Write the structure tokens for this entry.
Amino acid sequence: MRVNLGKIMKNGKAMFLAYDHGLEHGPIEFNDKDANPEYIIDIAKKGKYNALIFQKGIAEKYNEKIKKSKIPLIIKLNGKTNLFQGEPVSRQICSVKEALDLGAKAVGYTIYIGSRYESVMLKEFDSIEEEAHAKGIPVIAWIYPRGKSVEKKPGGELMAYAARTGLEIGADIIKIKYNGNVKDLKWAVKVAGKTQVMIAGGVHEDEKIFLKQVKEIINAGAAGLAVGRNIWQSGNPVELSGKIKRMIWD
Ligand code: FBP
């Protein structure tokens, strides 16, 4: 079933502000300012983001402010800490119903393709996709090739595989990591077909380097960015968001 992406995309493009790092990486990513989810909601509002991405705990505790901001909410349904260093697996910790009750306009789920536990995540994703689509809301898959089996495989090949996996499993949007090669990304966008490709921002970089990367991402035909650290760890998050928006839509 094709769902309407109009609530979280504009003219087939989008810019999401991701903030699930407190779980995925731990507070090591934060300072006094950006440790506070309210700071992130303010950036999303001032930067007119198409959506904010939170885990359910933040979505619940800061629900009033999120609603007031009018920025559509995307809730991540699975997650893990980075404390355990084995084959990656990320299990569901929030249901589609809980997400909808919290006001989510879309749900997200991470799959580590190549991991020993890939099948567990693919199966869990399938139930989520079925339920979310039955309720008419889009499903976004974070697809990251990871684990011993894929350690030595070429990055471009893996990026395209991640993108195609999104199409095959019914994701409306996929979020993948850019390997820095425009030609590879063009191919990944191509094989993703009608599934929209969004790119993660990655580690906080110098603004010039980051913007150069954004330009490449847009030129390669991606639908936009689902970015975290490069925005909220920046000294000028709203100004930088404006620059990215202009690159995406102009
Ligand atoms: P960034 O733009 O900050 O990289 O965030 C994107 C993201 O996918 C987050 O949603 C997630 O928390 C993080 O990256 C996961 O990164 P990794 O698994 O590479 O540590």
Observations:
- The domain at 14-249 is CATH 3.20.20.70 (TIM Barrel).
